[in-house]
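URGENT: need a sanity check before tomorrow's submission.

F., can you look over the 3-phosphoshikimate 1-carboxyvinyltransferase record below? I want to be sure the sequence and structure line up before it goes out.
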Amino acid sequence: MSIERVSALHHFDARLTVPGDKSISHRALIFGALSEGETRIEGLLNSADVTSTWQCLSQMGVQIQRQGTEVCVQGVGLAGLQAPSSPLDCGNSGTTLRLLMGMLAGQKFSSVLSGDASLSQRPMKRVAQPLSEMGAVIELRAQNYPPVKISPAQLQGIDYALPIASAQLKTSLLLAGLWAEGPVRLQGEIGSRDHTERLLPHFGVNLKTKEGTILLEPKQSLKAAHLRVPGDPSTAAFWLAAAAMIPGGRVEISGVSLNPTRLGFVQVLQRMGAVIAEEITAETPEPLGILRLQQVPLQATRVYAHEIPDLVDEVPLIAILATQAQGRTEVRGAGELRVKESDRLSALAQNLTAMGVKLELFEDGFAIEGPQALFGAKIDPHHDHRIAMAFAIAGLVAEGETEIQNPECVGISYPEFFDILRQLQEGEMKPCAF
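Structure tokens as predicted:
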């Protein structure tokens, strides 16, 4: 079993960039594949999850190539996808599987979407049910788990109230709507990541968004586009958290997405006292720019259910920050974390306890009274990239050595993570310019 060892870091002053946003990278590939013409993508994330989407599209006849710093997608249009000759392996990527469910629901061929052991234990009914209401023919395994079998169908439009704020569900239904006979109107909990609402118009789709409603009219085509994928704020969050906990810490992250629907973690950090400045430098069509953080002693906070959609990936980091903050930090409404790559709430509790932390665990969150000392421990991330990286950051403020088991799981979203961490520990990063 492979192990990464992390020791305490007493000085954090770094200027860095982070790889391309994972959510945008998936969508850029899919929308490019469905477009007419060649789409050029700068900054596409090179990770296992995005590779799953790339390979699935390739199996359906889409030509995708790296050319220097760009990825070029030869679009096949809405009528050009080819029937795959074997199941489409989504690996560990729930995003790949859920978005492709929408894309494949209205095709004239059958397909099967499968995944690894972890993905095969993640429920898909939330996406399958409204797609079925549109006329899709979808079969799930027992307990609504993958593999997902999709048969040919003619889709109808739908007027659907989203029961929860889910960007993947929203995007899957809009993708299906590209092949539907009538309009797709989404209402209810639409306030999740809005990358699809920004990107579809960039590809020439007339998408109307106003007053809590998203409307996609039928019979629209996509036109090839050029776009730059900004750095992933969920990846930047690890370095923001590290700098926020280490006395005198400073960090400057450039080229990162400053999409307001992705800055929930930044807002929580600011509530806890961290001094953070944002500077937008471009729109590509996503706003991107620079985040600068200066450390101050952290104060406890409460994170409410309505905030979770904008920081769902960063909840493990909030737990780590809570151990160093003064007072009681409580997170509720995060039950979705129990069906991620792991049961993240249980994984958090197990590994925090191993590091000497006392906490209350709820079905939908946790509470931690801080500050508490952390002690180096053997960390089992349960093959979950975000748990592995969060506890590596915890190791930077722990007494003694922290061992992260199976660290290769970070390849799902941030393959370079431990390389960057080593550079930080060895003092090889450029200091902040502010």
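My own read: The first helix runs from residue 22 to 33. The longest strand covers residues 275-283. If you see anything odd, call me.
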